[in-house]
Amino acid sequence: MDRTAIEVYAQNGDKKNACLLLDECSFNKKVNKSVGVARQWLGRVGRVENGQVRAFAALGKNNNASLINACLYLP
Question: Model's pTM, two decimal places?
Fold first, then answer.
């Protein structure tokens, strides 16, 4: 991911016109067989349930956005 971020910044990085986009996304999981599944707040459903939460970072410029990092929250 570091190399991808460096390459994306080289093409789209611009101190005046680029922006960093941060977002989290939650996913319902009915079973505990996946990594990171726990009872936690899931914004997507608006309550505490079993699920995973992931965080994403993207670099955007004009009409383009490129994913530069993603991680799974481990409760």
Answer: 0.74
Tens-level pLDDT at each residue, the chain (75 residues): 788 878 887 877 777 888 889 999 999 998 878 899 999 999 888 999 999 999 999 988 888 888 989 999 998
Phi, psi angles (nearest 5°) of residue 20: -95, 125
Which domain, by its residues, includes 43?
A: 2-73
Please list, in sequence order, all residues whose beta carbon lies within 8 angstroms of the beta carbon of residue 45, skipping any fewer than 6 positions away: 26, 28, 51
Please name every residue paired with 61 in a beta bridge, in sequence order, or none if there are none: 18, 64
The total of structural domains in the chain comes to 1
